[in-house]
Amino acid sequence: MSSAAKSIDHSSLVRVSVAGASGYSGAELVRLLLSHPHVELVHLAAGEQRGRELEDVFPQFQGLISRTLCETDWSRLGRDSDVVLLGLPHGLSMAAVPELLDADARVVDLGGDFRLNSAATYTDWYGVEHSAPELLDEAVYGLPELNFSVLPTARLVANPGCYPTASILALLPIADLLGGAHVVVDAKSGVSGAGRKASMTTHFSEVNENLKAYSVLTHRHTPEIEQVLASVGGGPSLVFVPHLVPMTRGILATCYVHGLDGLGEDELVGRYRALAERAPFVRLLEEGLPQTKATYGSNFCDIGIRRDSKTGTIVVVAAIDNLVKGAAGQAIENLNLMCGFDRTAGLHGAPVFP
Amino acid sequence: MSSAAKSIDHSSLVRVSVAGASGYSGAELVRLLLSHPHVELVHLAAGEQRGRELEDVFPQFQGLISRTLCETDWSRLGRDSDVVLLGLPHGLSMAAVPELLDADARVVDLGGDFRLNSAATYTDWYGVEHSAPELLDEAVYGLPELNFSVLPTARLVANPGCYPTASILALLPIADLLGGAHVVVDAKSGVSGAGRKASMTTHFSEVNENLKAYSVLTHRHTPEIEQVLASVGGGPSLVFVPHLVPMTRGILATCYVHGLDGLGEDELVGRYRALAERAPFVRLLEEGLPQTKATYGSNFCDIGIRRDSKTGTIVVVAAIDNLVKGAAGQAIENLNLMCGFDRTAGLHGAPVFP
Amino acid sequence: MSSAAKSIDHSSLVRVSVAGASGYSGAELVRLLLSHPHVELVHLAAGEQRGRELEDVFPQFQGLISRTLCETDWSRLGRDSDVVLLGLPHGLSMAAVPELLDADARVVDLGGDFRLNSAATYTDWYGVEHSAPELLDEAVYGLPELNFSVLPTARLVANPGCYPTASILALLPIADLLGGAHVVVDAKSGVSGAGRKASMTTHFSEVNENLKAYSVLTHRHTPEIEQVLASVGGGPSLVFVPHLVPMTRGILATCYVHGLDGLGEDELVGRYRALAERAPFVRLLEEGLPQTKATYGSNFCDIGIRRDSKTGTIVVVAAIDNLVKGAAGQAIENLNLMCGFDRTAGLHGAPVFP
Amino acid sequence: MSSAAKSIDHSSLVRVSVAGASGYSGAELVRLLLSHPHVELVHLAAGEQRGRELEDVFPQFQGLISRTLCETDWSRLGRDSDVVLLGLPHGLSMAAVPELLDADARVVDLGGDFRLNSAATYTDWYGVEHSAPELLDEAVYGLPELNFSVLPTARLVANPGCYPTASILALLPIADLLGGAHVVVDAKSGVSGAGRKASMTTHFSEVNENLKAYSVLTHRHTPEIEQVLASVGGGPSLVFVPHLVPMTRGILATCYVHGLDGLGEDELVGRYRALAERAPFVRLLEEGLPQTKATYGSNFCDIGIRRDSKTGTIVVVAAIDNLVKGAAGQAIENLNLMCGFDRTAGLHGAPVFP
Question: Whole-model pTM?
Fold first, then answer.
């Protein structure tokens, strides 16, 4: 495998580059990688912001790392790096990945280009043809709780979307039972999920003291959740509605499951406990309920479950930091698995509360 | 009717008093009544804050109204007022209402004491015995869109809860069809719904940049929604989960309805249009989706509907200002109906945006 | 005077048009004018948004006013209106005003083009030549507390900037004494002051949970404050620093005055009381201190004063809603004075709190 | 010295206990100490919350540390710890410190009891007698940028207040010149500075979308700033006004200095550069201006300076995270100096942005 070949060139540190370093996911990758014990940051590439100093674009980094944002020269990035992390808008990654793989780099793509395994479905939801459909089969969906066994050997990892991360983790312990069930995922996100580009949708005065649903039944994360749930079980009938909440970070997914009346209380709780026990970043709240702030800046996914005795509905609530477990943190978790590091390396920071 | 008897004493203005004037609902009543053309504010009563000047408790009123918060002497309030508006914690209203009615005052209770028509259900959900069960039958549920025909003659009006207002209005046009259907109401509220009393739950540092579900499946507004929907149709299987959102005002109720596959698209939309046409404060958004900010400070309830062709689920989103349509504004709407005023009197103010 | 000539065409209502109706100041003008008893809204003009329905641009207006945003055809606007209110970026007003005045309309300009009475100073701070310098002398600075006597006959009113409104009102009672004094104005504003255009500066994720000073010593409102204070007294040595606060509405100006040691306590307080007594929208807080929320959505300016016995410094704090007293509300106050209406017409709404 | 004697008992780890672990400063100490390479957390003590699990009080810690909050038994805390960190309301520390020192523990007090070196001044501002005045001389003011040379041998460190930290660091490079100068410090803080106790002042609905000055000229941090500045130079005439900003974390201090006209531009900038070069947590922004978010969750103090050529005023803006550099982070910086560790140990985390 390519990375093995390259491992001769660097002694103990893995050489990592970030493309899209001027975006929020890119900045979060840098923040987390700065305290990663086994990573050497090689290139930070950006589009419009190339040529600027990182600390001018993100003043929080002054005194911590000094680096000029370089051009996104894929062959150079691939050549100089063992792993390249892509924090790019969809459409750009699929153009870059073949070249990166050719240069023997491994890739974690934080965007949506390699998450769906059908090029046709991709076109349906993203509105463009897929330019590298031959890689869709090889790409591993980077949800470590699901794919921990195949991630170590993956060349190309499709990091899950922020909503799917929370939604799928909330349903994973019972996913094999969901064939024929009916599931509503009412998800709520902070604004940073929309990225750093200024728009009316993210204008402070339009978002603050405001709450709305958006992309109702049409959000691109819908087929992603459906695909993963279907891969585990029969696949439920799924309704997914996201909402925009006046906060910067955090996703809360409230999931309503109907049709699992046969599932006993002990088995229900037992399944979630089992996930929390084997997954280092999943925490099951036995008494309380998740709140996004308790995961702030960390890679945790907090889960709480309730069952309505009257209607038989199971309610599962999951909370994550959309920029960490929903993006950069999970990418590093994948990087760790790919490189044989401790899965939690660089991800030990406690949540920032309040 | 008592108020008719009293109408001799005041020429054109109705004499109105507010109890609980030091709370948020009380302050909102005062704000709105200040511009009501047919109301004379008589007494503003308060508990712990009695004896203080209103403008010291609520500095926004300086220069607009000068009044000392008086003691809650029910017989005096009843004697001096045609209508008394109660913004009290549950448990206090049921003790006061009999005395107010005896004094020939009419009452709008903004709290929960007279919303449920069964004393046993009240005890189940509120944890105390009802002290005036004989009035439960007489009390009219003050949702004008539902009970506009009986409100004009009501002596005692139970103003709906904030969540039920948004939830029921979202479902009212199809409520008669919901028998046997399955309904999820995922509701989200700003913090002012919790009142003015300081608590850890409403501490800025705990709420800001945070999001959580609370009282999952156990919130007191659940039986209220169930009762009203059941009164219109067969009553659905209902799951209700409220969430606390880092904003001050606003409720968004996202409702998921399963089991109405037979309802045609034209009829579905037609039913909502019919509500919007007859109800002066319901606005149907034909294209966009509701956002709470577009109702800020106003008595509007904005509604948007979508249907998922794949699962047959109907998604209805409703937005209100919890302190206006969800409390004080609706109470004044009820007052208007009770007194024969234009239903929108005092409620013409446009939403404050941004 | 032109407006007198036109008064024949409309019986009792003044015909008012708004240019820049798709911006926040424009929307606030519409919100307030909807409840103005003597105004007929004629045209709502916009630039990029022309041709769209007002309620599509600002959904809060659905059901309240139905109007298509028209093109900014100045001669038509001038011809059809008694008064035109301009909520435009600087540079656009000076091009439009001559044509509007030629069409016998009177104008209130909410932008900065006619606030400074020197074309050279304008160029220094705004970076462009003034295209209508001949009107600078005629333009009346629309701070009613200062110019109430000349506003009734003004053809062209330069509505004050948001920061200058709060800053000057805070200092007005002692402005005649400030020659030789040293004054620091540390001002803080909500984000809506930056307008509705999306930018990195107003991006929610960049503003929320963040606080910064900006345009330190270089903000365009500095010469405006200096000019007005100089016109009343000798003019102080002034330092002005604005800050961006994570809230939508509100300005708080904290003013520090050194060098007025001779001013006795009684006279100091007496001067502020005198302002509050004669100015319907200035409220002096004798005990407490201003908070922006107590003015939310209203035309009030709340003022509190303290004196430091140790250093002799006088601290004056003033709070306004930047979109009302700092923009649209004050424009309507000016309109009222220009048209001989009660100065508070259309401005009676109580602040929205919380 | 006591800690030397104790250093026999623990090999390489310093034994640290925290009192007041249920407060925000306490939680922040735990968060930071969890990643400190040389610290063993011994006891976490609390008042009302004693007996509860830490993760029940602060769910962010679930899975990271499991500990029962113990009683504040001072002799036990002192006996078992090399250093005790006190996150207590003022008044409690002065009662505890003598006992802790007697038990040979060293102490960092995050409260105000040992910051002022005069018991009389303490009584003037805090309203109570000082119960341990004999320790005021020994207590070292824990601003490492000022007292780095004496902190290594200190037994008792008075950790600076949050406002004084930002204010003094902003003025430190020119403090020796301030005798006779006039200084205004207009400071703005997030809400977490008020602690975790619920109150009307910290109620979300009262703080959100609101801004106010408070404790104008009467805040207890005033004499602290005065004392430290006086200890370095002649001491300026100081005016200090704090403001409450609707955000959770962050302090911005905007300082206005008059009377340093003789100080050349090069020397001015040179002095700040010198501080930034020798102080690992001070960052001088040569171009931009500080924003609190760029320090979020970190121990940095960001500083920007401007000079007004017209009035000669120097404007210095400093930004910190009030819970880190303004409290827990600085306490750990002091701990590091006291124990001979690298001054940045445990404080390497990059700011969390956005």
Answer: 0.96
